[in-house]
Amino acid sequence: DPRRPRAQAYLDACFGDRRVALVGDRCGGADPEGMLCGFGERDGRTVAFAAQTGTATRPAGYRTASRLIRLADRLGIPVLTLVDTPGAANDAEAERQGVGAAIAELFGEVAAARTPITTLVIGEGGSGGALALAAPGNTWATPDSYFSVIAPELAAAILKRTPEEAEATAGQLRIRPQDLVELGVIRGIAGHPGPE
Known about the structure:
With 196 residues, the chain is an alpha/beta fold. The chain has helices at 7-15, 59-75, 92-96, 99-112, 128-131, 152-158, 166-173, 177-183, and strands spanning 19-21, 35-42, 45-52, 79-85, 117-125, 139-141, 188-189.
């Protein structure tokens, strides 16, 4: 749903103005349009967050999220990740900046973290660019989200199907939250924080 709440609405609902941003990947890059990272306070407790904004995430966004998770793990702070991306940026510049390595690093940080990580899929959850932020065994989804190794449109194209067949392809991929619960991919379906 194009009117669905985005990351900013969730962060506002969860932390209000009691949050501070963590910007930059320590390699000279930042992705403020694609990934919001920082620390917030809720009910007197500090929580780290890495939130995709609904656009293609750049390599610097993945590296910043890795940096955040390492820091939170060292400090024993729980992490909330919000997934909403059609996938990783795949242009020539993203390739030069090492998008594949940045995604792989984030997969490793999430898998190795000792601090609790909770993931909520709030929109598009397409490709490894979304999967990298997903906490194994502790991922939830909103009713109007999807989560898959590939976006339905791209899967249809790879299968040499017409764009009109993307919806049928999505059904075959079983990407709806109900399907994901049934398959054991996510723990459950969560609601929205309210109107944006």
